[in-house]
Amino acid sequence: MSDFEMEAIRTVWDAKGWFTGQENTTAFVSNVCRLFPGEEGLVKKLFLPRRAHFRLATKKDGTCALLGETGCLLPQEVRPYYCRLFPLWTVGRQIVALGPQCLAIREAKTITRLLDSMSMSKAKVFDLHARLRLAWGLPPKSGDPVVTLRLQREK
Ligand code: SF4
Questions:
Q1: 153: CA distance to ligand 1 center in Å?
Q2: Positions of the chain with pLDDT lower than 50, given as ranges
Q3: At 91, is the secondary structure helix, strand, or coil?
Q4: DSSP states of 15-57 as a string?
């Protein structure tokens, strides 16, 4: 979670307990490296060993602290970028699906159907991914849409 994403959430729920610090373990850094192939060096600089990053806090049952009885307590536009994208991701100019065990992926079978089921356009996926990169401290990639981070609600 970036400072920007946490700040966005606080505009809706200004309470403590939504986030928690976690050490940048080797496993964590490896997982982030896998998300950004070819940028491992930069990722390792952003998530230095023995330092920590913030993540969403979880309840005793392991579910997200922001998960209410009828779903996420946050409006779409302030949810963390990773949440808004999941299970979609981009690699180069391709849209891919993360986590083959995800039910949505198994049911949709193709990326086109998965996009439809999530009411997402390809342009929106690249836009969210570009925002996530910026929020997490990675520079824009060639071919990415030009984005800026604002706390005002995005359209
Ligand atoms: S989408 Fe899910 S994981 Fe993300 S903030 Fe909402 S409840 Fe938490």
A1: 17
A2: 155
A3: strand
A4: -SSSEEEEE--HHHHHHHHHHSTT-HHHHHHHS-TT-EEEEE-
Quick one: pLDDT at residue 151? 64
Q: Is 114 in the pocket of ligand 1 (CB under 6 A)?
A: no
CB 88 within 8 A of CB 119: no
Q: Is 1 in the pocket of ligand 1 (CB under 6 A)?
A: no
* Contact indicator for 136, 2 with CB cutoff of 8 Å: yes
Domain chopping of the chain, boundaries: 3-136
* Predicted pLDDT of residue 155: 47
CA angle 55, 37, 52 (to 5 degrees): 25
Q: Tell me how far CA of residue 53 lies from CA of 21, 49, 80, 82, 147, in angstroms.
A: 6, 10, 14, 15, 23
Tell me which residue has tokens 């986590």.
Answer: 99
Nearest to residue 86, comparing CAs of 68, 69, 72?
72
